[in-house]
Amino acid sequence: MNTVKSFWVGWGSLCAAGAGAYYFAKKSINADRAARLEESRRKKQMIDSLEYSNNVPNKPLSASTMGGSPNGNGHPARTDTAGSPSQEASSDPAPTRHAPATEGQQVIEKSKYESSSPFTSPKGDRFS
Asked: Cα–Cα distance between 55 and 46 in angstroms, integer?
């Protein structure tokens, strides 16, 4: 049977064990947090050093200065734009409208994205 003394010894040992477990768990958790914080700081510092490093050239270098051939096959790069839609697009005229010839046309001309007639909402009940 439990006596008063054994009751308090039991509760005392339970509290001491709980406090010890709390102390060591808190110590372990704080160590893990410090390690994660240090890892994130180190990673951020590495990213910043790569992003803001001074050894990266400001202007892109050509392949010949980097030690390669001019375009990979030993021939100089092509200067014509035939067959390259992205380069041809800059010299195309406007697809739908052209520049106004007179100042009067310039004042009343709308852009190619504006409609010719203003929008009017249909009158009446929408739900019928």
From this structure: 14
